[in-house]
Amino acid sequence: MKSETAGAPSAKLADAPSAISAAVSAASIGGAAARLGRRLFGRRTAGVDRMAFGLVALLTIAAVVGPFVTPYDPFAVETSEALRPPSAAHLLGTDDVGRDVLSRLLAGAGLTLLSAAAIVVLAAAVGIVVASVAALLPRRADEAIMRACDIFMSIPSLVLALGLAAALGPSMLSIIVAMVAASWPSTARLMRGILRETMSSSYVESARILGMSRPRLMLRHVLPNSLDAIYVQASMEISGTIVMISGLAFLGVGAPPPSPDWGSMIAEGQQYTTTAWWISLFPGLAISLGAIAFGLVGDAVRSFVDPSSRRSS
Amino acid sequence: MNDVLLRVEGLSKTFGSGRRAHQALDDVSFELRQGEILGLVGESGSGKSTIIRCLVGLEKESSGSIRYQGINPAAASKSELHRYRRDLQMVFQDPYSSLDPRMTVRRIIEEPMLVMGGYSERERRERIHELIRLVGLRDEHLDRYPRDFSGGQRQRIAIVRALVVEPKVLLCDEPVSALDVSVQAQVLNLLKDMQRQLDLTVLFVSHDLAVVKYLCTRLVVLNRGRVAEKGSVPEIYENPQDAYTKALLEAVPVPNPAAERERRARRLGLAVAR
């Protein structure tokens, strides 16, 4: 009756292959996402949330179709048009080598937002896998993995990401790698705590006493019931990540010029803040707007998942 | 006297170690006889639930032994352990947390049969339909989720889940204490019916002496992890031997206003005297 021996006999008894349970839990995740969608865009959604969703939708559209609808070529150098203030021809002005700021903003939206999304999704995925594996391992290995996460977390993530990205060379990919490396441990820690809580619920215990194997228990009951908190954390983290990757790009570890990502654009306009403020201001506004909108969406997701944290407004 | 089905001997359980060690069970012995409903009573913290958790393997006993029809689950072969797990099923206290919120009732009920194996798809389907009707639910309930049901209905579903693999012994951990008083009786009657119809042996953990008196044939009274008293229900209710059992029985309200007033006065006097 020891829990360590519980896995062995039931592995043989389990007639359904684990692929089925995986598919089943995937389906239940999909179901939850559908419920979330209905709730977020339903009639009862608050005004602020609607605005935030609208903005996020707009930014997403900009990220996807932006590069194809730019009024000018975002890379075309036109020295005769350099440092033009916002006008009818150039709605947001031009930079020091005459490139259209609006065009570059649109071309860079995808780069900035999709990188942020990729980082959050990848970090969550790594965190979930590490936490699940730790939960399945014997207690000591579990402890060791979690302490390793603590050590990772004790290094300031900006410093860690900066160092890693610098070592990997200046590119958007190295920012993504560095950011994922810096942020997965916190997801893993969070997830491990939630998994532990879910594992002690009586519906999991009721499956355990039947002798269900631990991996199957994890896929069928524990993970599907633990992912809500990860949706929340992920949606909350997108906005912070947008700011972080822009910061890294600003510091010069991002994509090399002439990349139009928003952080680099601010850096390029740095020398002209007093004479040509529009070069830095508009990408800066875009970053703020993106961060605020995704932050509000994260809040809305949280209040959907956990109604007790709802804003009092 | 009926055959002994399950024997618990010298069961002890200590949680934690060193100065923070807490002994939840101390040398508990009792036996469960074929076809009876044995009540395990005591106040909260008396170790009632820990006994059930040791029986189903959710906790590992510190010492002592469990023996079910010759099977010792701590040292059983795979096939013995399989039979043990199948023959002893459990109903949890809180029907709001004992059903996976992301599964339909059908899947919840089907799962034990899948894990235990040996049921064809047709058998599984037939058993689900048979049992869900037996507990007074309908076929259309099968494709709903636990959140669509009341506490009493959920506990019926939990009972079906426990019975679906044809157990011999049903372990009930305060199965009605989380329910409204009005539905407690329904669930208790259901348990009694099932016990009779399916020839089950039931270990019924409760702190509610009125419930136990109604349902059980024999009692084991627990006090701080120790057995205070054992005996048949009439014996214990008519003539309790142990001081703790007397105090427990004293605390039960009497459905007669005059007698109740007298009882309260007596208890108050007792409290003042102390």
Automatic annotation (TrEMBL), chain A:
GO process annotations (BP): transmembrane transport
Record has DNA-binding as a keyword: no
Domain ABC transmembrane type-1: 109-298
Pfam families xrefs: BPD_transp_1 (PF00528)
Family per record: Belongs to the binding-protein-dependent transport system permease family.
Name under which the protein is recorded: ABC transporter permease
Residues that span the membrane, as ranges: 20-38, 50-69, 113-137, 230-255, 275-301
Species name: Arthrobacter terricola
From TrEMBL, chain B:
Keywords: ATP-binding, Nucleotide-binding, Transport
Domain ABC transporter: 6-249
Keyword Repressor among record annotations: no
PROSITE patterns linked: ABC_TRANSPORTER_1 (PS00211), ABC_TRANSPORTER_2 (PS50893)
GO molecular function annotation: ATP binding; ATP hydrolysis activity
Xref: InterPro entries: AAA+_ATPase, ABC_transp_ATP-bind, ABC_transporter-like_ATP-bd, ABC_transporter-like_CS, P-loop_NTPase
Family: Belongs to the ABC transporter superfamily.
Cited PANTHER family: D,D-DIPEPTIDE TRANSPORT ATP-BINDING PROTEIN DDPF-RELATED (PTHR43776:SF7), TRANSPORT ATP-BINDING PROTEIN (PTHR43776)
Protein name (record): ABC transporter ATP-binding protein
Organism: Arthrobacter terricola
Organism placement in taxonomy: Bacteria, Bacillati, Actinomycetota, Actinomycetes, Micrococcales
